[in-house]
Amino acid sequence: MTIVTGASAQPVSPPESAQQVAGAIAQPAPLLALRHIRKHFRTKRHDTLALDDVSLEVRPREFICIVGPSGCGKSTLLNIAAGIDTDYEGEAMFEGVPITGTARERAVVFQEPALFPWLNVRANVEFGLKLRGVPKEQRREIVDRHLALVNLTRFDRAYVHELSGGMKQRAQLARGLAVEPHALLMDEPFAALDAQTRDELQLELQSVWARIGTTVLFVTHNVREAVILGDRVVVMSPSPGRIKSIIEVNLERPRTPDDHAVADLAAAVRYELQNASETPEPRYAI
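and the corresponding structure tokens:
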């Protein structure tokens, strides 16, 4: 396990050979780059600093989880990455281009499923494709593929009120993936689910991600969930939100909540989270 502290620290060990040097040089450019982000929420009476000098780079096909106490700015940071919030200081780049608003290359999955209740599951998943003018037969193929991906084929004609919480989140995930985004931004999508359904969806999401390789930025309060899903776990401090540490998760997939290695690493993340209000120290490795 490697723990790196500070907003801009990167978990890099000194290379030991020319081959390692070459590998370091060949690192892909970040898909998403957030640099020195500061975000204020201003009213007539208050000026609240929500994010303070946050820098984070996310590589292609990487699964990044962000954890932190309530009010630390996790969702605000995700909204900036999505282009939903454009009123901030600093620089947000996606594929080398400044983020100036929402774009189909970045799909968002919210905690509360944002499904249209007057449409059935198939029509919900198809909605974004229709907006893009995708031909009917092609839409059918894409929707069929993504319903199968999230195990909802049998429920394609069901309406939102007929679905369980887990099925609603599967439908929302299928709709987000159907437009083939380059990044999937997920804001506590499993927080309102019961423990068993959450465990099932964590396994399912790992399987989907392994098959399609979409870059994922995932916000959660659940430390063990972050370790189960993430390649790296970003630990944020209490408000104003700063990056306290970034923890590499070098565990085999698929991972489950009962894995001893998951529990051990989750304890380390929890320790970082409990001490997140402390001033960042120099980077260190365990």
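(Above: one complete record from the training split.) The CA atoms of residues 252 and 261 lie 10 Å apart.
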